[in-house]
Design goal:
It is a single chain. By secondary structure, the chain is of the alpha+beta class. The chain has 12 helices and 22 strands. The strands form 7 sheets. It has a 5-stranded mixed beta sheet with strand order 3-5-4-9-6, with no helix packed on it. A 4-stranded antiparallel beta sheet has the order 2-10-7-8. Strands 15-21-18-19 form a 4-stranded antiparallel beta sheet. A hairpin with a 3-residue loop joins strand 12 and strand 13. Helix 2 crosses helix 4 and helix 4 crosses helix 10.
């Protein structure tokens, strides 16, 4: 510790607000009152997404507060409060006493002290952290000017990571909207039919009326790839004229994973993709407790190797329905059991981007999420026999050109974020211990 650093406590550094849950009768999911946070189920990648509200809030977090889980198996999980929330007893809100520009330093303190804090948590089954434990947690603090400089460095890294996440969310929303417009709502076909004066099927009349009032954004060279009429099929009803109806299994392979044995795990080697690597938001993330297999398994179990942008779906268990692409920076990887890999058949006109957005659209329907009757498992047949309405190769190629550029950019952003997170993890202990000092005149 540097000579000008002081031993203090978290309670002296920060204001700590412990949550208090309102009565159930005062809570609702209709948007009445103050948004209520009960725990990490509402946490996002950076800030929460509340699902409940209360008309009788007890305790509050303010904008820019650090939200901290204090109860149960998720003790220590954190998020940033992006506005005022009512907080239940599972959460606490931390704010640096000198202002929001020091908040990233405060989070750095918590990150460093978290193992010690969890070790001191009480409870035989699930840990609980009390206000006294938080207040009395011993911390070592540099002068305020250096706290602010450390906050700037850590905050800048976190801001860049969050900016990339937000960019990815935008790109993902754009691709999903494009898929739905072209392959579900048939907007370009409706537009062409309206322009040609052709009949619109009754089932699409409402959409056609909407299209009359919408500013058309598709370019002329894209628009001309689509037909200007519909035809009726026994399998799918009205579809664009000339488009084909085929079962998913005719175009896409559904590949199994393998039940690798834990006795074969090694410290470094081939990454094993497991169900826990899939997020509920849709995606694959690398974890600190990932497991690996010897490199020679690459030949022995080559049929279970994932390829760039393969689409994976969890088919059973608590995370059934979680899904995501594996990206180039996450390879090489072997698929574990309890998941399927969807991959276009060799020489198929179907692209990996089409596979992703088609499955993103149909999986919630197959799972029963749309009806509220969520299922506990999938069968291969649930997907293999699914009917696809396939356009011409030129339309599929046009979609892939756009959608894959989005997927590739998202993968690049995610790779950058992995590097930024590693840099932050490397700098954090050095900055917080004084091993790495920041000159006074750097800012």
């Amino acid at each position: 510790m540097a000579s000008d650093w002081e031993v203090s406590t978290l309670g002296e550094l920060a204001e700590i607000v412990m949550g208090q849950s309102p009565k159930g009768a005062d809570c609702n999911s209709d948007g009445h009152g103050t948004p209520l946070l009960n725990g990490p189920t509402e946490f996002g990648s950076n800030h929460p997404h509340p699902t409940q509200f209360t008309t009788d809030p007890k305790k509050f977090s303010k904008k820019d507060d650090l939200l901290f889980c204090v109860r149960g198996s998720t003790t220590g999980r954190m998020n940033w409060s992006d506005k005022e929330y009512a907080i239940g007893r599972g959460l606490a809100a931390f704010r640096h006493k000198k202002g929001k520009e020091f908040q990233s330093f405060l989070k750095g303190v918590i990150d460093i002290k978290l193992p010690e804090l969890l070790a001191s948590a009480t409870g035989s089954t699930f840990p609980n952290v009390s206000k006294n434990q938080l207040n009395d947690l011993e911390v070592i603090l540099p002068p305020l000017i250096e706290q602010k400089a450390i906050a700037h460095i850590l905050g800048s890294l976190d801001d860049k990571i969050e900016l990339n996440r937000q960019m990815n969310e935008t790109l993902e929303a754009m691709a999903q909207a494009l898929f739905k417009s072209w392959f579900v709502d048939f907007d370009p076909v409706i537009d062409n039919a309206l322009a040609a004066g052709n009949a619109i099927p009754d089932e699409l009349l409402e959409r056609a009326e909407q299209r009359k009032t919408i500013e058309k954004k598709d370019k002329a060279d894209i628009q001309k790839l689509f037909p200007d009429a519909f035809e009726f099929t026994e399998e799918m009803g009205w579809i664009p004229k000339g488009w084909a109806v085929e079962k998913l299994e005719q175009k896409i392979d559904v590949l199994n994973g393998f039940a690798f044995k834990s006795k074969d795990y090694v410290e470094k080697g081939l990454f094993v993709l497991r169900t826990k690597n899939f997020t509920s938001q849709g995606g694959v993330e690398l974890l600190t407790d990932d497991v690996y297999l010897p490199n020679e398994f690459k030949d022995t179990f080559s049929k279970y190797l994932s390829e760039p942008f393969d689409y994976h779906l969890i088919m059973v268990g608590a995370s059934v329905g979680n899904r995501g692409l594996i990206e180039p920076h996450q390879l090489p990887a072997l698929r574990n059991q309890n998941m399927w890999c969807f991959r276009p058949k060799p020489n198929s006109e179907i692209s990996k981007s089409y596979v992703k957005y088609m499955l993103d659209f149909i999986t919630p329907l197959k799972l029963g999420l749309a009806s509220g009757s969520a299922r506990e498992f999938f069968r291969k047949g649930d997907f293999q026999t699914h009917q696809l309405c396939l356009p011409s190769n030129s339309v599929l190629n046009a979609f892939d050109q756009i959608a894959f550029s989005y997927l590739n950019k998202q993968a690049q952003n995610n790779s950058v974020n992995v590097s930024l997170s590693k840099l932050r993890d490397t700098l954090l202990p050095k900055l917080m211990s004084g091993e790495l000092r920041i000159p006074d005149d750097i800012f």
